[in-house]
Design brief:
The chain has 213 residues and is mainly alpha-helical. It has one domain (5-79, 135-212). It has 8 helices and 3 strands, in the order αββααααβααα. The longest helix is centred in the C-terminal third of the chain and has 17 residues, at 144-160.
């Protein structure tokens, strides 16, 4: 029997829920894998029926052994190294009623003369506080091609699953990017992809989870 999208998505979440939860950035002695896919969670963001937390962001490392650094950038003090931080800050600015011109300035590269002005330094701190409220799990995947393939398929199914809708209080409802508001994920790429995770992908996901435990 072929599972519906919602049934399959719930099974994916249940498999990922078997992985260890991390609440701080990786260290040199961390058990966080150095290559893989990370799944981000936020308090209050639950799957339909309160079955458990829903994933609110999916990411990978593109360079070998770089996942620790990738996650650390989300906890850091510099949005230039983390698209996730840019999205969080943009949502915080919008929630506070800042005009679109200021949100666009926040997104601008380091070359902006206002990159480190007092307002944006304040929001850097608020973004760090927001990141520290989250948690994450990591699925070890050493092959970059497999990481990229699974990243797309997982983002696609999470963004289209009706049981993974964001709560009314989710910060992402204030996000600058429409893709975030509509998908319920702090992702832009792949949220509109039709290349969703399929039933036949479950076997390798389960194998990866089993090897990671």
């Amino acid at each position: 029997m072929v599972a519906t999208r919602e049934q399959l998505c719930e099974t994916i979440h249940q498999e990922i829920d078997r992985l260890p939860v991390f609440k701080t950035k990786p260290t040199s002695i961390s058990t966080v894998p150095k290559d893989g896919i990370y799944f981000w969670y936020e308090d209050g963001e639950m799957r339909m029926g309160n079955r458990g937390q829903r994933v609110t962001r999916v990411g990978i490392n593109e360079r070998p052994g770089r996942l620790h650094g990738r996650i650390k950038e989300h906890y850091g003090q510099n949005r230039e190294g983390s698209t996730f931080r840019k999205h969080l800050g943009g949502a915080l600015l919008a929630k506070d009623g800042e005009p679109e011109s200021e949100i666009k300035e926040w997104y601008r590269a380091r070359r902006s003369a206002r990159f480190k002005d007092s307002k944006f330094c304040k929001y850097e701190g608020l973004v760090t506080q927001q990141a520290e409220l989250g948690s994450y799990r990591v699925l070890k995947v050493t092959s970059i091609s497999e990481r990229e393939e699974l990243e797309e398929r997982l983002i696609a199914i999470f963004s289209h699953c009706s049981h993974c809708s964001p709560s009314d209080s989710w910060l992402g409802t204030h996000a600058y990017r429409n893709e975030i508001r509509l998908s319920g994920l702090w992702n832009v790429e792949y949220v509109c992809s039709t290349n969703e995770f399929q039933n036949q992908d479950l076997l390798r996901l389960r194998k990866r989870v089993r090897l990671a435990r």
